[in-house]
Each structure stands twice: as C-alpha cells, then as structure tokens.
Amino acid sequence: MATIILLLIVVAIVAIFSAQNAIPVAITLLFWKFEASLAIVIFLSVLAGIIAGAIIVSLLRMKKNKGRPKVI
User: Where along the chain do its domains lie?
Assistant: First the structure.
C-alpha cells in the first residue's frame, strides 16, 4: 500500500512539473530529430524509468525465489 501511495505522489509531482514546462523542445536521437512538448518528454521519461525499474525488480525477485521449493 505504501508503494502505491509513493508512486501516486511521484506521478503527481511529475504531472505538476511537466504542466509548468509545456514549451516545445527539439529532441535528437542519432539521426532522428523531432519537436515535442517538454511536458510530454518529461512524462514519457519518468514512465519509461518506472517501467524499467519494475522489470528489474521483477527479475530480481524471480531470481531470488528460483531456489526456493514451492509450497502447495
């Protein structure tokens, strides 16, 4: 429950921060270049970080529980 509350607080802070920084910015990645709102860039970056963190935590938990026998 505490994790969900913390996650909601982080999302709220990011939403407020990105809403205050809604100017268009140029994004360049190798040979790919486009313009997008800074709010969208910030929000998608945080979302990608949350997803990457969740995947890493899930993999670590699966690795930790791999050696334990399953209880029926």
Answer: 2-65
